[in-house]
Amino acid sequence: MNLESIKAVKQLLSQPQKIVIVPHKNPDGDAIGSTLALWHYLVDRGQEAVVIAPNDYPKFLKWMPGNENILNFERENSQAKEKIAEATVVFTLDFNHLGRIGQMQSVLEDLAVPFVMIDHHQAPSDYAEIMYSDVSMSSTCEMVYNFIEFMGDVDKISLEIANCLYTGIMTDTGSFKFRSTTGRTHRIVADLIDKGAENTQIHHRVYDTNTPGRLHLLGCALKNMVILDQYRTAYITLSQEELDAHEYQKGDTEGFVNYGLTLEGIIFAVIFIENKEEGIVKISFRSIGDFSVNEFARAHFEGGGHNNAAGGKSDRSLKETTLFFESLLVNYKEQLTA
């Protein structure tokens, strides 16, 4: 965050504001952790603030302090629109294009107030007057820690803020194993633990609360895995029928895509999940090394994200999507087998 942006935010927050904080649609640990951490920080500073999520999110994230104050735009639409209409400032976290917030997009696009973006994804759009965008960061939660530091308030990080930030950093770094995890990341995490972050309990709450249905669904996903050794690629499919048979709940497929990368020699892993309600196949891409799944997703599946983690979608059937995906790999064989 440059000096000019820091001064602009300090000026904004030097007077009382009505602040709306927004994560992306289908928010994950980093999105909920960062928005709640910022919410606690702003409220502790005496600001009036509210987090409005575009839609629901997994149960394993709902233990975080402040969760009960989040408005769900789909479920609490009139109340959420009222808060947006009253807003004097909007913070958008963990996304950089208003197309990532579903039904909220048109509402926010009509809002004539300052926007502040805090995000670590590639190719940001220019909707925000104040942008803190850094693709080298491990997570938006790490950036919120930095934001609080830029404001001169690291000593004001409470137990609640520490727990939220730790959760987002832990989940978005794959428990600190992804390449974006730096020495700075670990130093921040150490400070959060010193400030009270309950690291062992957080890991348990996020990763050790599986239902039998989720574990059975994982077994189904692994059974469906296709391994393409010639492209150092593995992919998983899950049909709507398979999701329904295992009583799928939001968040149940979180992390499934990473199992492909545990195979020796595999550097590209994908999961294709059919969603008949939306009429699409949702896709998650992961890679190891220099193969950019961000570029792959942008080029072929209306998606994007990071070099080693991205998402996308397909309007084709599940079978047609996987056949199309396989047909693309021949064009990337040199990159995948280098």
The largest sheet has its strands arranged as 3-2-1-4-5-6
CATH class group of the largest domain: Alpha Beta
Approximately what portion of the residues adopt beta-strand conformation? Answer: 15-25%
Main β-sheet description: 6 strands, parallel
Rg measurement, Å: 20 Å
For the termini, the CA-CA separation is: 36 Å
Helix content: 25-40%
Say which CATH homologous superfamily of the largest domain is assigned. inorganic pyrophosphatase (n-terminal core)
Please provide the count of β strands: 12
Series of secondary-structure elements, N-terminal to C-terminal: HEHEEHEHEEHHHHHEEHEEHEEHH
Keywords: Hydrolase
Organism: Zobellia galactanivorans (strain DSM 12802 / CCUG 47099 / CIP 106680 / NCIMB 13871 / Dsij)
Protein name: Phosphoesterase
Pfam families: DHH (PF01368), DHHA1 (PF02272)
